[in-house]
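Task: sequence in, structure out. Protein: EAL domain-containing protein.
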Amino acid sequence: MNLNSFDLAPVEPLSNDNRPRLLLVDDEPRLLSSLYELLRDRDYHLVTATCGSEALAQLTKLKFDLILLDLRLPDMSGHEIMDYINAREIDGDVIVMSGDVGIEAAIGALKRGAYDYLRKPYSREELLKTVENALQKRRLAIDNERIASKLENSEKMYRYLVDSSPDIIYTLNHEGKFTFVNDRVQQLLGFTREELIGKHYSVLVHDEDQERARYAFNERRVDERASRNVELRLKCNPGTGAGGGIERTFNNTLMTISLNAIGMHIPDHEVKTREFFGTYGVARDITDRKRAEEVISYQAYHDILTDLPNRMLFKDRLGLAVIQAKRKLTELAVMFVDLDRFKLVNDTLGHVKGDELLQQAAQRLKDCLRRGDTLARQGGDEFTIVLPELRDRQDAKAIADKFLESLQRPFDLDGHQVHISASIGIAIYPGDGETIDELLRHADIAMYQVKALGKNGHSFYHNSMLDVSHQKIALEQSLRKALEHNELEMYYQPQVDVATGRIIGAEGLMRWNHPQRGLLAAGEFLPFAEENGLMLPISDWMLGALCRDLLQWNANGGEALRLSLNLSPQYLDRGDFFEKMRGALTRYGISPAQIEVEITENICIRNPQYAIEQLNKLCQLGVSVAIDDFGTGYSSLAYLHRFPIHTIKIDQSFVKEIHDENGHYPVILAIISIARGLGLHLVAEGVETEVQARYLEANGCSTMQGYLYHRPISLTSFIDVLQEQNRRSSPSVAVLHAVPSAVDEQPAMIAIQA
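Result:
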């Protein structure tokens, strides 16, 4: 028989109940049954086999503590089974049971490692005692093996803890020479144990740290006064390249072994003298920690994105520059730089591209500076510069011009060609301020003056700017009161169907009846509303005002009129806009079909999926959607077809370019073709001449608004115009647009070229 055929199955370990498992092998059913009955009440786990092949099958499948084996089996001998057990190093003791009276059988079994040999017939007591002795011997052997293993593991653990410690562990004798050092010293410093044993500790210590090391390495104290956390620099073996060729800094925690020479033999009360024996120490490598501390310290004073000084370090350097300028009686300049159109890039291309733009812009600004100048990132897209030791203001002007010139070149953001500019405010010490805060505040005010005048330039601070700044603050405060005092009003600019000459819609323009300054257009106050968090309450007011106006229009025969309101991006981003719209329509009893919401195309790009969800909810309510100022933003036809759009409005900046009704204006033609291809309604804004009207009508745009037809008028005047039109003819469908523009009546969006 091929015994190797029994190697296929894995051996199953002993059962979890820890009972001894016995294999009983005998080809005589009566004897096997008798043996089984004899042992089964002894708390053993018994398995039987009636032939050699069954026994081998069990041995390949299960693990046994004891095998009771008959030598004479029908298919093989017991000796062959024992050879199989020995060849495969199967763990388990064997008791041979045989009726063979020959001495050779017993010798053969014992030579093969049998625990005992029982000759049949055996007595019950003899069998039970032999089995118990075999199992007891096995248990003792296992216990001894376990104890030996624990001792070995304990010793290994001790050696591991010492030799594999991340720290250098060492002992010194009373002379300061090494008596023990672990393997870690070779890994960190490149010195072997043999090279250091018997050597003085000073061979490892940096020359400048020898004096401090003398107290640490010769430490004699054993209590809390013992040396702790003494930082020393240790030398690396130059021939091994250990430590990366650098000196490493170590943190020493020292303990002293203080023993009496005879303290091991006599009671403590008889000890008369104590003798210093040596020093035990642990040296921990803190080189990486020191580097980390340096990095943390660096990051505390630098901007992580641009690697420029941050506002904290900038103020420190500006303070030093002011002290020097005061001592030397010289001037210095502080610049406040704000990147124009950065927010648009960030919103349209994403924050990753925005970060890349900031890094590139920072490098260009840095390249324009002199040695000794400081460029810092104030936060967001704002930078500050200090220019010490100015000869005159022309030095600051020259650098500001360099800044503007360097930023004129396009920025490449992974294939996106982006153009930006900067608004730069300049304050001069000491004329514009003698403190850090004054100089920064005045430079900031000068920067905002540049922004107010159209951006992309620089300006020196002047006291008159402070008055303008105060006026802005006063305007903001007055605007907050305008809502409480009901000083806001909606005006309407009619839209005309040029084919019939009838008014079929109107665009609503917000006005502020200012108590001192009179009627203000939206462009004079809505930018402050957006900057100061007032856009949301103003938009809430507008929603209610438009619904109230619709009630009056309906009462005067304008039931079919449809009112569009132009949403501020801040208002659309607010999650409760849909609920506010639905609540207002329900409260005033307005049909959703009379409302059309206008959005700028940049809203679609900022967060397209969110915008789609919000606009779809409005469409399900019955409100229609229009894109205002189409073509002036970051247009994407891929997004356009995904939005529930009903109307496209041609921006007035394109309409103004029409000077010849027989000319060719491809942008306008493209917008008209897009609207026609998508089946959208089309409205042209800012129509002021007959030439413009004829060109637009000839090319397929028949709905227009502008000074050619009507200027913005109050609600009362608009209702009078509607009533006059109704008297001349029957009422027709009107589309009424109400737009709280963030800039002016016809807001212009800035395009980003990609």
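Residues 124-163 form the longest helix (40 residues).
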